[in-house]
């Protein structure tokens, strides 16, 4: 379960998840979004984050499998549809 905090601002020393193309991200100043800390990812993003970011979904799956089974890599799958959705979103905001 999660929650939405419209008044929240994040300032951290951790690696950001990404750079904001449009909008505010973590705060009104650094144009960064979310954070990555060890195997955790935090984000203010709304909507279908994982279906439109197959590389992020693969990262989370790999981290879980590495933790549980010491697996080094995932079997490659055809992400054509997912990458098409990802690229369409990028084009909308550039």
Commentary on this structure:
- By secondary structure, the protein is of the alpha+beta class.
- It folds into two domains: 1-40, no CATH class; 47-94, no CATH class.
- 32% of the residues lie in helices and 11% in strands.
- It contains two helices and four strands; from the N terminus they run ββββαα.
- The protein has helices at 54-69, 80-93, and strands at 18-19, 32-33, 35-37, 40-42.
- The strands form two sheets. A two-stranded antiparallel ribbon has the order 1-2. The protein has a two-stranded antiparallel sheet with strand order 3-4.
- The radius of gyration is 15 Å and the shape is flat.
Q: Helicity level, as a percent range?
A: 25-40%
H/E element string?
A: EEEEHH
Euclidean distance between termini CA atoms: 32 Å
Strand-pairing-aware structural class: alpha+beta
Number of helices: 2
Q: Unreliable segments (pLDDT under 50, ≥5 consecutive)?
A: none
| DSSP strand content | 5-15%
Total beta strand runs: 4
Global Rg: 15 Å
What's the average pLDDT? Answer: 86
Shape: flat
How many domains in all?
A: 2
User: Looking across the biggest beta sheet, what order are the strands in?
Assistant: 1-2
Largest sheet: 2 strands, antiparallel
What is the compact description of this entry?
This protein has 94 residues and is an alpha+beta fold.
């Amino acid at each position: 379960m999660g929650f939405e905090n419209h008044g929240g601002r994040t300032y951290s020393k951790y690696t950001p998840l990404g750079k904001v193309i449009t909008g505010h991200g973590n705060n009104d100043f650094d144009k960064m979004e979310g954070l990555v800390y060890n195997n955790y990812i935090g984000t203010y993003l709304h909507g279908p984050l994982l279906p439109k970011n197959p590389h992020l979904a693969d990262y989370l799956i790999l981290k879980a499998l590495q933790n549980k089974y010491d697996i080094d890599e995932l079997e490659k799958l055809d992400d054509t549809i997912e990458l098409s959705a990802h690229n369409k979103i990028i084009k909308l905001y550039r």
